[in-house]
Structures are given as structure tokens and as C-alpha cells.
Amino acid sequence: xxxxxxxxxxxxxxxxxxxxxxxxxxxxxxxxxxxxxxxxxxxxxxxxxxxxxxxxxxxxxxxxxxxxxxxxxxxxxxxxxxxxxxxxxxxxxxxxxxxxxxxxxxxxxxxxxxxxxxxxxxxxxxxxxxxxxxxxxxxxxxxxxxxxxxxxxxxxxxxxxxxxxxxxxxxxxxxxxxxxxxxxxxxxxxxxxxxxxxxxxxxxxxxxxxxxxxxxxxxxxxxxxxxxxxxxxxxxxxxxxxxxxxx
Length: 247
Ligand SMILES: C[S@@+](CC[C@H](N)C(=O)[O-])C[C@H]1O[C@@H](n2cnc3c(N)ncnc32)[C@H](O)[C@@H]1O
Description:
- Helix content is 37%, strand content 19%.
- Strands 3-2-1-4-5-7-6 form a 7-stranded mixed sheet.
- It has helices spanning 32-45, 61-69, 84-97, 100-111, 118-136, 153-158, 191-200, 218-224, and strands at 50-54, 74-81, 141-146, 163-167, 204-212, 225-231, 236-243.
- It is of the alpha/beta class.
- The model is unreliable at 175-179 (pLDDT under 50).
- S-adenosylmethionine binds next to helix 2.
């Protein structure tokens, strides 16, 4: 069997393989591949080291992907979520990356997976070891807290310097779009107040959002931002938003 070598990639970060997995919440798992795609788009633009903030951070996959793969481009990573359970999971994920006992626990958990495919387990365990080893070499501040993103103004105001927001917000549960008006703000849940506050915050350098391609969020984003979109992966598009006030 040939075990993977070389630097850590987004493939090593998948929740349920190498990261701690919360069994107690229904929050969907976010693919590290999409996170990598978004972060690449961000760092193609960013020249200096930046603070990165995910205000709908869930289990923290996006933040951990940034932390592990882009640490040399970052000052700090911050994440918040309205759900304290998932914030706790994100904290666990970060703590586990720095803890030798946690690595052993993680390896045992993978060993206990129901699959009989021993080779696959060995690959996950190897990836897990490489990921933990790489994490030991990173020294960067991480701040995680519970917060409702519809009141993001105060958090942004307290951040020292420029901040880039990169996020995977909750998707609407309502697929019955009003084709006459194009948008119906209530359908986007917390997004409208969030976008309003982000657009007027003086220290937000950029906002990257991923959203399901079958849900027409673009008209709402364009109310506040100048937007460029690109097709992402796994049924999501990525929207790069520049506040209109800064153009
Ligand atoms: C699609 S998930 C994000 C998943 C995340 N990218 C990850 O890596 O696990 C959306 C998250 O938004 C959170 N959320 C919903 N409404 C919110 C609000 N008003 N403020 C902050 N977070 C909220 C949910 O709790 C959920 O964790």
C-alpha cells in the first residue's frame, strides 16, 4: 500500500475522516474542497497578511482549512456561530490539532470505523498524523465565540485593522422563489441584516460567500455589493463581494 506523502492538502481535512466529528448536531458537513476553493480566490487578491473571520463558522472546517493551508498569509482567524454546540465543535477541532492525546484518540476512532477496508483506515490515519504534525508548526491566534451574525456590526467594529469575511452561510429552506421580484428577503434568513451591516463596516476588505447555485442570491448581494461570481464545486457558487461604498 502506498501512503500519501508531501504537504497537507484540503483532502486531509474532511470532517469525519481526520477531524473531530460532532454527532449531536444536524449542521451539514462542509467540504474542505469548497473551503480551499474560496480561500484560493481570497488569497489571489490579498497582498498583505490579513485577519480572516467566518461569522457562520459551523464546525469550523473553513477556518481550519485556512489555518492549515494558508497560515503564512494570515494574522489571525476568527469564527462565530449562533449555535453554541457547533462553536464548541469548532473549538474541539482546533484543540485536537494541538494535542498529542487527541491524535491518539482520533487514530483509534478511525480504527473503529465500521468499514472493513483496512487500507482506507490506514490512509486516513496517515493523513491525520501528517495533519497534526503540520499543525504543531503553526503559531497563530484563533478566536471562536457564539454570536448572532445579524448583529455583526459590534464585532467588526472591535477588530483591529482590516478583516476579510469568508463564509458559508445557512441556505434558505424555501425553494419557492418569487420569479417576479427575484428576491424575497425573508427567504434568506439572517443574510439581509448581515449583508447590510457588512456593507457599511469601514474595515471589511472583502466578503466571500458560497451559496447553492439553485438559489438566486445574486440580486440580494448586488443591492449592497459589486459582485463577481464563479462556479464553485459541489453545487455551490462563490460570490466575491466588494462594498459599493469602497469602489
Ligand atoms: C452552512 S452552515 C456552515 C458550515 C460551516 N462552513 C462548517 O465548516 O461547518 C451555516 C451555519 O450558520 C449558522 N447560523 C444560522 N443562523 C445564524 C445567525 N443568525 N448567526 C450566526 N450563525 C448562524 C448555523 O448554526 C450553521 O452552523
